[in-house]
Amino acid sequence: MSTNDVRYEVGDDGVATLTLNRPEVMNAIRPGMSVEILEAVADVRTNDAVRCLLITGEGRGFCAGDDFQAIFLDENRANRRIERQVNRVKHGETSLDVIFALEKPTIAAVNGAAVGYGMDIALYCDIRIASDRAKFGWFFVRRGVMGTIGGTFILRQLVGLSKAFELTLTGDQVDAAEALRIGRDTKVEPQDSLLDEAHALARKLASGPPLAQQAVKRAMHKGFQMEWQTLGEYQQALGDVLWETADHMEGVHSFTEKREPRFTGR
Fold first, then answer.
1. What pTM value is reported for the model?
2. In sequence order, which residues have a C-beta less than 8 Å from that of residue 240 and are 6 or more positions away?
């Protein structure tokens, strides 16, 4: 699937690549673009050929957040958007938060500025690999609003409560080295090798055992809600199921036969 604002490609290696494609405005999100992203995420969820999702941006930026010029192009459109946002909040609906809920591995290859909603999109992913030119900022407070669970839930899990408060209440921007130091990102790569490194990791994850990966992600997310004893019981139940899968036997046999495993998700 390819549109004007988003490119979505599924490779033979099981890696789906979603590229935000508005480089002239640092891939800022305009009305309708979220729908295209959600359609791609829906395919990732249901397409058995997809084993890992990689998200990146075209050009020199990852995502500059909401495109306010496009959103507030006219007063009527602005009012309609505000009304929709209020209704979403009232009904507990989410938007790109669904990236966080995916049970397949996700990677953000942050090739430049990721601010506001762009930072949230990166935070929704399981793993973040940043270019040495990347910068991050949770800018919502500077616009008199607040963002999504990216900052208020995921960011505080990564960097701790105090640092999360500092970043979300000030909207201060940090560079890639600082993001790595505080634990927001997994690694920093030179700009020229970022996508190669990200794709190599994506292929590694795509070749892994899907059922076990899904179980790990479920347990990770449940860990936000449960006491550790209850989480242990939950993981034990998942583990009992995994012991009976063909992927488990393939993992054992490939080890004893000294060969690479061929996982099938069964």
1. 0.85
2. none
